[in-house]
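Hey,
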Amino acid sequence: MIFIDPLFLFLFLPVTLIAFYLALLTRGRNEALLVIFTASIIFYAPYGISSVFLLLVALLVNFGVSNALLAMDDSNPYRRVLYGCGQGYNIASLCYFKYKIVTVLLGDNNDFLTDIAGVAIPAGISFYTFHQAAFLADAYVREKSVVEFFEGTRSLRSGFWAFCRYGAFVSFFPQLIIGPITYLHEFHPQVKSRKFISFDPLDIAVGLAFISIGMFKKVVIADNIAPTVDLVFGAAGAGAVMDPAHAWIGALSYMAQLYFDFSGYSDMALGLARMFGLRYPLNFYSPFNANGIL
C-alpha cells in the first residue's frame, strides 16, 4: 500500500483515524497505540506475508533484548554480550536482505548464490532496522525515555501493552517505508502528554495541508517529469549517442524527479503523523543546501 493509493486515502486512512480517536477518547493511550500498531501491520501486509513475519520477529527480538538489558546490572558481564547479539541480529538481517553480502568463500556453490541473488528485499527494512538499532543503543546506556518506557513491565499484561507501544513506535505506517528514523525521546513525551489524549481539529487541518503539498510534488511534478527521464535514459540504454543538451536534460530531469518524489512522500509522512497528533522531525530538509552528509 502506498500513500497515493485511493484505497489508502479513502478507506484505510479514514477508518484508522476513526478507530484511533475512538480508542483514544474512550479507552486510553495504550488502546490507541494498539490501533496504530494493528493498522501498521495491515498497511504493511500487501508487501508480503514473509515481510510481515520478518518485521514481527525483529520487533520481538529487539523488544526482548532491550527489556533484558534494562533488567541487568551494569556489572553483569553478559550484558554487553547480549547487546552485541541484539545488534548482531540487526546487522545480519540487513546484510542478508538488503546488501546480499556473499562471501567469496562460497566458491562454486552456484545454487546457493542463485538463492541469495533471488531474495526479495523486504520493504522498509533499512528504516525499521536502524530505528530499532538506535532504540537498542539507548536501552544499553539506559536513556531516560527508554527507562520510563519499560517501567512496570514485569507482568504479562503490562509487558503486552509495552510491546504494543513499542510496535506502534517502530512500525507506525507513515514512517515505516521511507522514514524518518526517530528516537524514543522524540516519540515518548508526545504520547505521554495530556494533549495526546484529546482531539485537536488543527492536527487534522495541518496534516491534510502537508499531505496535499506532498501529493502535488509527487503526482503533479515528479510523475510528469518521469516520461522525459524514461525517454532519455531509454535511448541511452539502447545505445543512442547523446549530445550534451539531451544528456543534461536527462540528468537534471532525473535529479528533479528524485527530489520531488522523496520530498513529496516525506511531506505526506509528516502530514499523516500530524493527523494522529504526532509531530515528526523533518527528514528531507533542503538536501541540495547541505555541505556534508550529517
